[in-house]
Amino acid sequence: xxxxxxxxxxxxxxxxxxxxxxxxxxxxxxxxxxxxxxxxxxxxxxxxxxxxxxxxxxxxxxxxxxxxxxxxxxxxxxxxxxxxxxxxxxxxxxxxxxxxxxxxxxxxxxxxxxxxxxxxxxxxxxxxxxxxxxxxxxxxxxxx
Length: 144
Ligand SMILES: [Zn+2]
Prior knowledge:
The protein has about 140 residues and is α+β, with helices and mostly antiparallel strands. The chain has a single domain (about 10-110), classed as HIT-like (HIT family, subunit A), CATH 3.30.428. It contains three helices and five strands. The protein has a five-stranded antiparallel beta sheet, covered by helices on one side. The radius of gyration is 18 Å and the shape is globular. The termini are far apart. Bound molecules: zinc ion.
């Protein structure tokens, strides 16, 4: 039996060529433990179909991706006693595997995860921020 070999690590997991600790298996999505977790239970939710980025994913799958992530988070709270969740999705930069994956990281108060989105800064002026917001609004893609 010939088997398609892919350069994509997640496709190889989905094809069974690489083992993973599966957390969720559904028609459109699979979730498995990240091999280098921020905290135990840190899970990646991955569409079965290969999409490199969100831009390549059908709009109709975006909501279900978050839905699957929410189910994983619910399980993390039940199993790990997690109080909350950090949902994250790196696109291109810091995206170690070029196959869309939603990080679902269990959080608890005092878990020490900080500095991730810091240090923060302030805009130099209200005018600067207003101008920037206006340029972002003007550049929004048309809502489908
Ligand atoms: Zn892939």
